[in-house]
Specification:
- By secondary structure, this protein is of the alpha/beta class.
- The protein has eight helices and ten strands.
- The strands form two sheets. It has a seven-stranded parallel beta sheet with strand order 1-10-9-6-2-3-5, with helices on both faces. A three-stranded antiparallel beta sheet has the order 4-8-7.
- The longest helix has 18 residues.
- The structure holds fructose -6-phosphate.
- The site of fructose -6-phosphate (F6R) has 13 residues, from α2.
């Protein structure tokens, strides 16, 4: 795992967007894993700008989102389909038929989860997965105690997540209690993982995920098992990390990061 510390949220999100852009230019058929949430909005703004200003081409890429609430229509402003259309898809030249999110309205949710996994496999697996992290350490909606080998499935949301996302629905009692999410096992099979966390409210969970033991209590800690995972944080989210100087040295000196400095 590599950790990159950027001075602020804007710089951290811009770095994530530039890495995505580079991978997409190197492989126009990229299979790109996407996340939602407030942290990602800034990344999508940068990607839209790269599309508009630098002709970043999404026409051949395929996308898979991590998760979707159970029971929301795509038109619901709180659905992740709506979020993705609003923040990214409708502003770039991605083919809507190539954008995938789990269907939280499926009659048979277990079958929908199996289909989602099969579609990812049919597309050759995910090349690059972008991730955020919840305050309880989840990636996707892999809440505490999610098995490290788990696959796409329906997951009940924890009180911490209900509290984190409840305000968008006008209260916890109005939000779905369950979501379909890629599993931790699905995520760590991706060829490359990029996790972005910003703000002081993520400092504690980032320290536990990056420098703590691998535990299903913090599903993001499973990224320590991944051969190519990068955690990008701003100074605030890096606040509780103990090896900051080491991470800074790597970013400042390793040739791999030269083009991003
Ligand atoms: C949603 C997802 C979640 C969020 C996490 C952080 O697709 O993957 O894991 O990334 O809950 O959300 P924000 O950025 O709103 O703090």
């Amino acid at each position: 795992m590599e950790v990159i510390i950027q001075p602020n949220q804007e710089a951290a999100a811009s770095l994530v967007a530039r890495i995505v852009a580079r991978e997409l230019r190197a492989n126009p058929h990229l299979v790109l894993g996407l996340a939602t949430g407030q942290t990602m909005e800034c990344v999508y703004r940068h990607l839209v700008r790269l599309h508009q200003m630098e002709k970043l081409d999404f026409s051949l890429c395929r996308t898979f989102n991590l998760d979707e609430y159970v029971g929301l229509f795509p038109s619901d402003p709180n659905s992740y389909r709506h979020y993705m259309n609003h923040n990214l898809f409708r502003h770039v030249n991605v083919d809507p038929r190539n954008t995938h999110l789990p269907n939280g309205l499926a009659d048979d949710l277990d079958q929908e989860c199996r289909c989602y996994e099969a579609t990812i496999k049919r597309c050759g697996g995910i090349d690059l997965q972008v991730l955020g992290i919840g305050k309880a350490g989840h990636i996707g909606f892999n809440e505490p105690l999610s098995a490290l080998y788990s696959r796409t499935r329906v997951k009940a949301l924890t009180p911490t997540t209900m509290k984190q996302n409840g305000p968008f629905f006008g209260g916890e009692d109005k939000m779905p209690r369950r979501a379909i999410t890629m599993g931790v096992g699905t995520i760590i099979e991706c060829r490359r993982c990029l996790l972005l966390a910003t703000g002081a409210s993520k400092a504690n969970v980032i320290a536990r995920a990056v420098e703590g033991p691998i535990t299903s209590m913090i599903s993001a800690s499973a990224l320590q098992l991944h051969p190519r995972s990068t955690v990008i944080v701003d100074e605030e989210a890096a606040g509780n990390l103990t090896e900051k100087d080491y991470y800074r040295w790597i970013f400042a000196n390793e040739p791999e990061w030269e083009e991003y400095r």
